[in-house]
Amino acid sequence: MDAILGAIQNPVILTVIQFLWGLVCKYAPALKAVPNASIPWVNFLIALIGALAGPQVAHAAFGGAVGGFFGSVLGAGWTAIQTALIYEVFARAPLKNIGFKTVV
């Protein structure tokens, strides 16, 4: 379990998981009942669980001024915001041009 939660702490893996979750919710007909407004909240919870339940990051690797629980909350919120921006800026228009239709 530590390996899975530790992998979620990797920013690249976390972003891919969050991005794919958003795409599945928006474009998979089986999940059309899931509201789009829940996507950033689920992404926030995924990042927060990885930060709180995963193995502790070495203090020398921590570059921020805020630590502890509040630092984990801020970090989880920031990754959810970044993932939403990646979708809005880089993915929405190309997916629409390719022919993907949102299910909601």
Structural account:
This protein has 104 residues and is mainly α. The protein has one domain. The chain is 68% helix and 0% strand. The chain is built from four helices and no strands. α3 (38-53) crosses α4 (68-98). The longest helix has 31 residues, at 68-98. The model has no long low-confidence stretch (mean pLDDT 86).
Q: What's the structural domain tally? A: 1
Mean of pLDDT:
86
- Give the radius of gyration: 15 Å
Poorly predicted ranges: none
Order of helices and strands: HHHH
- Report the portion of residues in β strands: under 5%
* Discrete helix count: 4
DSSP E strands, number: 0
- Gross morphology is elongated
Largest sheet, strands/sense/barrel: none
**Structural class computed from helices and strand pairing:** mainly alpha
Portion of residues in helices? Answer: 55-70%
Q: What's the end-to-end separation, in Å?
A: 34 Å
Q: How is this fold's topology laid out?
A:
Blueprint: H1 2-8, H2 11-27, H3 38-53, H4 68-98
Helix pairs in contact: 1-3, 2-3, 2-4, 3-4
Summary?
With 104 residues, this protein is an all-alpha fold. The protein is built from 4 helices and no strands.
Primary descriptors:
single chain, 104 residues, elongated, mainly alpha
